User: What shape does this take?
Amino acid sequence: MAQQTQPEYRAPAVADAGRRSRRVREKRPTKVTVEHVGGQYTVSVRGQVDRPTVTEFSGTVRGLVAVGVPELTVDLAGCWEGARLLTVLTRTRRALIDRGGRLTLVGLVLPEYLPALREAPLEEVFLVYDAMRHIPTPRTGSAADDEVSRPVVVTGE
Assistant: This one.
């Protein structure tokens, strides 16, 4: 059996005075990770959400839905500008609901999403609303507050 070897790495060529140099693409650190514990999948997003992150996130969640993952949790606690993911999250939620599944968002910071929600389709507004109503409210210490969880109230300007 013939042994296969990987091609040798060559450094990019230095540009001559009259030629253009090749653009060297640096490897980006992974911003989207998947954790699988038991039957639960959690997709976490870290850092600034830019176009490549949206593409990476979209491919990850589409793949999980395609292989039949029924319930998916998305953790947005470690990212900023996460409102850029609303369209992908809405499509993912719809695909999971169509298959009898569920999407859960955690780590949502509401002030970051308010400007995006002013012009968002209604389905994206409800996605954020559903995520926000599952966030526990701060306790004041009274016995009545310990028994009843109040919904999060969002006020506009």
Observations:
- Residues 65 and 96 are 7 Å apart (CA to CA).
